[in-house]
Design a protein that fits this description.
single chain; 516 residues; alpha/beta; Ubiquitin-like (UB roll); Nucleotidyltransferase, domain 5; 3 domains; six-stranded mixed beta sheet; 32% helix; 24% strand; elongated
Amino acid sequence: MIQHDHGLGWVRPVRLTTPSLSDNSADMDRLLRALSGAGPRPVAGFPLLQKVSRSLRQWDFAARCVLFDDGSGLRLLDILDPQGESRALGVAVDLGTTRIVMRLVDLERKEVLSETVMDNPQIAVGSDILTRIHHGSTPEGMDALKRVVGEAVDNGMETLCLQAGLSSDAIYAVIISGNTAMTHLFMGLPAGHIIREPYIPVTNIPGTLKADLFLTHTNPEGRIFFFPNIGSYFGGDLISGILYSGIHRGEEISLLVDVGTNAEVVLGNADWLVACAGAAGPALEGGVSSMGMTAGAAVIDRVSISGDDFTVGTIDDLPPVGMCGSGFIDLAAVLFLTRMIDPKGKLVEAACGNRYTEEHGLPAIVVVAADASGTGEAITVSQASLDSLIRSKAAMYTILETIVMKVGVGFGDLEKIYVAGTFGAYIDPESAISIGMIPDLDRSRYEKIGNSSLEGATLVLYGDRYIPEANAIRDRITYVELNVDQDFMIRFSGAKFIPHTEPELFPTVVAAMAKG
């Protein structure tokens, strides 16, 4: 279980000495001095000057103070009645290319109040980042992309507050965790140079800004913090994931893996961090594979076999309409262990029996019959989809193999492998090992940590230590470019077999096949 020390929270109670002839400091000076302790003095804006004298006297010189890191130090955003019921809220945002996940947090109590998820409305322009960046190459296109995603987050905050029975005026902090391109498109910054050599973003450290530059449903003094990026292909969502996983704090060597359209990997400990990214997810994401869908209601996320029948599990236990990445990996493992596919991932007609079919003249296998499907049509997997999965699993394993080799360690040296994201929330390590996607290690070394991007953003709402820590993580990472690694393609070719061209790398899989 990951443990965290949050430091000081953003809402802090103060009780001041009553002014007197012997202590006649100005009201705001007195308040800021009490908040600073032995540290730097916070700053306060003009709206607070207008209310501080009246409020302090009304509250007998006590208050609950709402603060936030303003980039150069603490800023006092508001003062609240120490005996009142006013809440100070924050919102964590996982700004994904496909989906936006949001969480409402009570800053004082450090508790989650509500959550919501929505499709990223920029999908209407294009499902991929490249299309969106090209669309944003004109001022009109850029403004449109910024507007629709800002409205989506605004609407999400209204939904969160409605669920919690609270007002969005109490939202003082919004934390944005997204990849480099999504952060640029949210901010309305030109992103064209991110995708052109030498791949230069406008900024890697957006920092803390006024929330009303981007959103309308926050407190007028609200602030928005953007996780920093490493560069074009390593964004704030990964910094957030590292922050949550804690691999940068321990002495042992650990690995963080987050698989989406790309596989992003971080290896290291308290002394060093090395990161890389590569294309390992196409077969696992909606719209690329003929049956790959984003994880959601009624989507198959688990597959096993009992006798002659596949047993499938769906999200929310609804009749199946398709299959997401974790279900796809389970299926491939079942097919291999029952010899319905060979080590090259090719369907074996004789072993598939009456499940074998053809689509457009190419081999396929029926996973769910039409009468058991939520669509009324059979759910099938084509040979092309399996071929795509083989390439993806080979890329995943080779990325992991490459990064550990770069630093001169082996898989056996890894204390923990944290698997993050939607992929990590559902993946069964046993299945991923069976097809040679991840190393054959003791299963206790694998730990699913869910949406680490959202969790890292939530941490920032819990305490003041995390923004400096996120910036320090960014400064410590060494990024490895896989495209210039000459041995990568050689290792990749060797991994395009199940489980691998060197089966001794997967002893438990070999043993399972021998028993079968």
